[in-house]
Structure formats: C-alpha cells, structure tokens
Structure prediction request, 358 residues.
Amino acid sequence: MSFVKSVTTKYKFGAHVSTAGGISKSVLNANKLGCQSFAMFLKSPRKWESPPLTDEEIDKFKLNCEKCKYDPLVDILPHGHYFINLCNPDEEKAQKAYSQLIDELHRCEQLGIGHYNLHPGSALKGGSVKLQLKQLAKYLNKAIGETKFVIIVLENMAGKDNIIGNQLEDLRDVIDIIDNKERIGVCVDTCHTFASGYDIQSSLESFNKFWTQFDEIIGFNYLKSMHINDSKAPRESCQDLHEKLGQGFIGLEPFRWLAHDQRFEKIPLILETPHRDDNGYGEEIELLQWLETIDDPENEELKFKVEELQKLGAKTRHEQQAKYDKKQAQQGKKRKVVGGDILSQLSKTTKKKKVKPE
Prediction:
C-alpha cells in the first residue's frame, strides 16, 4: 500500500522506517509512506560490528533523497545504536560505546545527514548521575571534535533512578558542558515526557506549561526534533511503552494541539508507534495531517475518532493502570512497614530507658 506525500501540510510528519536491503532503501520506504521526514538505523542496532557503507550505497542514498525531495541535513534523523551508553561507569565499556558512536557519526557525514538521535544513557546501579553526566558531556565534546557537521540530538527519557534524561534539567546540564553548542540539540519524545510525569495531556494550558518549562530550562533553539508517540502506561509510571496515537493515556487531543503549533513546523516529527507493518505509519501520518485541519475541539468527526481510538486501546490501558496501581500500593505498604518498624523500635527504646523526673 502506498501513501501520497502531502503538498499542503506545514509539518514534517514522518516515521522510523526499515533499511532492509540497504540504507538507500530507507528513503524509498519513507516516501512510500508519505513521510515528510524519517528516521532509521544506520546499521543493525543489536550488533557491535557491522560492515562499512559502500560507495554504491552512499551514492544510491543521495540519489534517492534527491529524487524523493528529502534534504538529509534537516529531514532525516537516524536513531542511535541501542548498545551505546556513554555514561557507563566501566571505562572500557564506555570507550567501546564511544567507538560505536564515532562510527555512526561518520556514517551520517558520509550520507550527508545533519542530525543524529542519541539516548543519553544510564549511570547504572551504584553509579553517580552527576559524575556520569559529566562523562557523557566529555565524550560528546570529543565526538564533536572528531566530526565535521552532524548535530548530536539527545532524547529525553522515561526511566528513573540512574537513567540520564528523564528530567529536562539533565539535558540542560549536559548542554551546559558542551563546548560547541551549535552541534548539540534535543529530541522530545511525547511518550517519555508523559511517563516521566510531565502533564502534556490534561489541558492545552498544561501542554503549553510544559513547553514553557522546556524553553526556560533548555531553550527552544535546542529543539531539533520530536518523537510522536502515545503512551500505554499512565503518567508518572516511568514506563517506556509506546502506543498508537489516540489509543493510550495521552489520547488524540494533544497531538491536535501539536499539529496547530507553529513552534513545531520545521522539525522532524517522527512516529515510533507499534505496528505490525509500515502501513500503520502511513495511516497515522494521514491522521496527523487530518488533525492539522481540525480547528474546533468540539468537531463531531473529531469526537467520533477520539472515542473510536480510545475503545481500541481500552484493554491495554486497563491492564497497565492495574499494574501501576498495584505497584503504587506495594510501595505504600513498604513505607508503612518501615514506619511501623521505626515506631516499634522507638517504643522498645522508651520502655527500656528510665526517664528522670525534671
């Protein structure tokens, strides 16, 4: 099934596409889905070693971009290798991750790609977030010095504990240490943002409040892209569980707000929603472009679509809500037990201790 690229949309709606058959095929796959922008892996994300790009594939990639009217400098956002963790406290493993990063940045520049999306990483169990954050910045400064033009785009995350990037302040602190700030940026993932506790869903006011926070803490000039995903898990769950648009806890309306916000017109807006095949991405791109045309939140067709999609995701939302509630209850019980133990110890101590009259 093929979709037609819109000639009227103001937004660069796109998706993460397959590279099966060669990196040059990613361009054709994106075009077939009607993408205005797209993401892909530069090589296998689950292997340390991959063969270098051939001159033939590089030439095909550039030719396909020209034919399909994609500008690699601004329309394409490759996703970083899953194994890269520049925050690893183990120096040998961090250096291995850095070698992987440099290889991918060089591939970007071979292909003429101007942006590269990277997960900030984790300090792992027992690691210091502050120290490993500085280590991340050190490696990024080194990588920028060893490459020519590609901008490294750090993604906000949905995890907790020692995950770097689950709060906007983490990304700000990294950017503060980067020497060449023209070579660093941020990708905001809507699912990650919501799961981390930011309210981008309950009202247009709360949606705008988040973006005001983003501007105050990081700065809109650093926003280079977004990942457009609904969330299977509730807000503050810290669960990185992407859902199809409108079927999750975020719902459809925040994506309509996004599709009417001029601040997001010139950056890649990449879908990473779960689908059995890529046709689902084509349908969701059309959905986003349709939302762009709906000005009235009381539009009857919009109301029907919201209800339809929420019904499709109801079972998953119910299951995830139950898991979240159970976890919260268990944590509550643990706190009560700890409190009870402390009170019990105090009681025993008081009984043993003889209190002198004043």
